[in-house]
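debug: dumping io for the single-chain case to check the tokenizer round-trip. Nothing else runs in this session.
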Amino acid sequence: MMSAIYGDQFLYTQDFYIQRDGEMPDQIAEIYEMETQFAYAEAEISGHEETLERLKKDIPVSYVLDLDTNIGFVSFKGDSERINAISHVFPFIFFLVAALVTLTNMMRIVEDDRSTVGVFKSLGYSKYYIFAKYIIYSVLIAVPGGIIGVLVGHRLFPSAIYNMGYKILYATPDITTAIHLDICAVALALAFASIIAPTVAVCYNEVISAPADLIRPKAPPSGKRIFLERMPFIWTKLNFFAKVTARNLLRYKKRFFMTVAGIAGCTALLVTGFGIMDSIKYIPVKQFENIFTYDGIISLKRETDDSGKRGIETLLDESGNEWLYIYSMAINAENNGRIEEVILTVPQDINKTHDFFIFNNKSPGDRNKELYLDGSGVIMTEKICSLLGYKVGDTVTLISGNRRIFAELAGICENYVSNYVYITPELYSNLFEIEQSEINYRTILCKSEDNSEEDERALAVQLMELDWVNGVSFNSRTITFYSDIIKSLNFVVIILVLSAAALAFVVLFSLTAINIDERMRELATLKVLGFYNFETSKYIFRENIILTVIGTAIGLVMGIALHGYVIATIEVDIIMFAKEILPVSFIYSALLTVLFSLTVNLAMNFSIKKIDMVESLKSTE
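debug: decoded output
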């Protein structure tokens, strides 16, 4: 059953979306024609003149789309799939963070309880009992943490992402969040694994040791000759503390790799967060100022005649605006079985085209060199060529109705929003077999060198008073709209920065605390020998700073890879993000990582000040 709708509205039924005022898609044209002819014949037999007139009126302007051909539904579905792809990456990162945090903290707890474990074993307690003590401790942390995480994760993050992303881009109802038991089970299982597995790994070496070894303080790792010592031209120029620091860095290998991994993860998250903003925040300006250099778009009614166009042109001339007529329509482009929608754009005056569009070359060779539209072929935007695998010189397949049109690809141009194919009127006339005089240019682009927002509003009011104008829009409002969307992404950056800060603080704090506990006698000896608190702190924190620098350098490289994956994942088919990270973002990421490290060092400085030299140097024996 098919129904017509009046006005530019959608009607959703069980099977179809129906919209008025558009062209008939070919895949459903036959069905519609058959049903319309049947209804028309039935009305003619019955003598219903009103029905006949309505059918005559509705036949050319009604069409039907199922869900798979509705661009809004397909776009929404594609965006959802990309968020789903991201959900496979970031949880993995945070589970690794949880495992690393658990590992560092359990190492500290087990090291502190080393003598207690020895006493338990000497009293006859089994290793399973000792294992159980720490595993129960981990479970008591994992259970409430997992429950809180499940509740917050199901309510907070879906609502935030939906309201700040999808609600802005799509006309959709409010989100209904529900607790999915299967997702909860997987998340809790991974959370338990990331906590219990490190606990077991840390406890294993302790429970298999002899009680006598556990009761005595753990012997420090033996020093070894390092690679730097084999380069005397460097080693001989180092002072005593520099040599000690270099040896200690590789003496505690476990701490070395854990610290570097934690700092690298922190920096990578920061680079990704700032990189996302760099890739997106300049798109409105690039698209609507540097590529589309016109200021506004005037849409004309279908029945606009030459006199109406002259009236609009006069008004534009009086307001100091240049103008260009264009014809555009939505068609499909195909390659290797993949079909994507594109907007075919035909400028009426080729000589004025490059005053309104800048075609920066994005094909290999003379990149960013301006392209010029001529009759040798079409110019396509970068994103659609990437999706379909087209290169300059290829034959492009365009689908309009039941017809396939083949044209040579003359150039690939820079573009970020929507996918376009630009073609000259002569080439369009030849390929589509239509006279140039029959091309219905119903869109006017206008631009002025000194129009303010007040001038644009005044011009819009004057244009809308004309009978032939269907609508007016200005790029300044479009830029504002996209800028507001981009501001909402600050939430994502804040989450990444806070996550990175938490990772850096927990890892550095835990590892530094373990380092101080392990070397308590060493530090107490330095204080007895007359070292000031500042000098003693430098002895420890110099290692942290070097590890922070190494981890930051690795994290910057990791951040580039993670940023590239995230951007490629969240990109939709009609939007291309600038795959770039500004140098200042690398600087911010490195400085924040170093700031987190220095903050931890400052906090741990008080632990070194509180070292009791007499108690630390007492023999456990």
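debug: round-trip ok. Confidence is low (pLDDT under 50) at residues 1-45.
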